[in-house]
Amino acid sequence: MKILYATSVFPRWPGDATPPFVRNQAELMAANGYTIRVLVPHAKGALIYEESEGISVRRYRYMWPSGAQQLCYDGGMLIRLKAKPWTALLLPFLILAQAFHLLAECLIWKPDLIHSHSLLPQGLVAIIAGRLFGIPHICTSHGNDVFGLSKDGAMGLLKRQVLRHADAITVNSSATLKAVLEQGASIEKVHQIPAVANRVEVNADLLEAINQKFGDAPRILFVGRFIEQKGVLDLLEAFSRVIKQVDSAKCLFVGDGVLRSQMEAMANELGIAQSVEFIGWRPGDEIATWMAAAEVLVVPSKLVGTWQEAQGLVVVEAMSTGTPVIASRMGGIVDMVDEGVTGRLFTPGDTKHLASLLVGILANPLEGERMAAAAQVKVAEHFAPDVVARQTERLYKYCIQR
């Protein structure tokens, strides 16, 4: 069976910091016998055509020269629009280019199913193409589209049209499920299927290098973008309390973002700069090793406007690696972290409680190991790639055969 993916979130090249969850799913389904083609916006430096891991990628240009294509990537479309409002001028060109290429693929390649990722604009364009060519359509909401886009006005109307007319809707968590239902989706067509996390492969040489660099220092790890929503400033505040009780501790930040300079200044002001390390972005295949080298992964995400953490794949990756997790009690995180069983939860923004939990897990590593073992069992039962593949394949077959 031939499946056409339409998305705007897809790695541009090896080692790209763009979240790979759509690519992970495409590769997973290709490994299960499906022929997968991915339609995605082009970016300067990326290949127009790419064949790898059993999938074919088609990147369409929506503006010339290629350097002017600045609407996607580097944090995603919503973050780009907020950071550079002028990029909104590119949106009509992106939608037109996407519609042209999606229609062309339906006419020439003749997929058995269209799987769009995000209600807008991919889901809307896919509905039009699906209706014109009689091709079933599944739309996946990864959260940003329902949490980050207005529920009112024209935007809300367009989202409701996608939710109403797609043959099936998939969501990555109970939080996203609740949101799409509130915005007009019918419960009968919504399916909760988690996103596919990165492969968990620990590199022994890299692990040894990290251990040599930091010695016996207990390590607290953050992985992600340095933006307000991810709670990085709260983690620094909490760590300034931790260091008073565990003076050898290190706080490692893997990632980058607009708050980098503010974080560095804050670390200096708090007097913890010597205990804080900014590692920068690392390739996806290194992340599990950094997690394995840490005593605990912290996911301190917080509510900013209507945004919340729809799933938080780093949680699944850490749980798979056997690294204890301390995370905010919000969004889809609670689907993965059972308080005191598979990890610890705290109220977003409560830096005192976060600091207390961190000190506790550093002081009692056996408790962390117990929770990490329980977390690995939960991942195997609910979030492992083979589990996601079975759920996805069942839905694909249902939509194609109905």
Notes on the structure:
The structure is a single chain. This protein is of the alpha/beta class and 402 residues long. It has two domains: 2-196 and 385-401, Glycogen Phosphorylase B (Rossmann fold, 3-Layer(aba) Sandwich), CATH 3.40.50; 204-382, Rossmann fold (3-Layer(aba) Sandwich). Helices cover 45% and strands 17% of the residues. The chain has helices at 21-31, 77-83, 91-108, 119-133, 144-147, 153-165, 174-182, 204-214, 232-242, 260-270, 284-292, 313-321, 333-336, 351-363, 365-382, 385-401; strands at residues 2-6, 35-41, 49-52, 55-60, 113-117, 137-141, 168-171, 190-192, 219-225, 250-256, 276-280, 296-299, 325-328, 344-346. Helix 4 (119-133) crosses helix 6 (153-165).
Keywords:
402 residues, alpha/beta, Rossmann fold, 2 domains, six-stranded parallel β-sheet, globular
Structure summary:
It contains 16 helices and 14 strands. It is α/β, with parallel strands linked by helices and 402 residues long.
